[in-house]
Amino acid sequence: MTPPAGPRLSVVICAYTERRRHDLQRAVTSIAEQTRKADQLILVIDHNDRLRRWAEAAYPGATVIPNTGRRGLSGARNCGVGAATGDVVAFLDDDAHAEPDWLAQLAAHYTDPRVAGVGGAAMPVWPHRRPRWFPPEFDWVVGCSYVGLPTDTAAVRNPIGAGMSFRRAVFDRVGGFTEGLGRVGTTPLGCEETEFGIRLQAILPDAVVRYEPRARVWHQVTGDRASLRYFLARCHAEGLSKAAVADRAGADAALATERQYLRRTLPRALARDRHSLGTWPRAGAVLVGTGSTAIGYARGRLRLAAGRRDTPRQPIPSEVAVIPILLYHSVTDYPVASYRRWTVDTATFVRHLTLIAGSGRVPLTVSEYVERRRHQTLPPRPVLITFDDGFADNLAAAREVVAHGLTATCYVVTDWIGQVGMLRGADLRTLAGLGVEIGGHSHTHPRLDELRPDEARREISDCNARLTAAIGAPVGSFAYPHGNYDHAVRRLVGQAGFTSACGVRNMMSHGADDPFALARLTVTVDTPDRQIRAWLDGAGRAAPARELLRTRGSRLSRRTRARLLGPRLPYRPIVTDLPVPADLPVPAVPAAFGEVRP
Question: Where in the chain is the domain with CATH 3.90.550.10?
Answer without folding.
Answer: 9-228
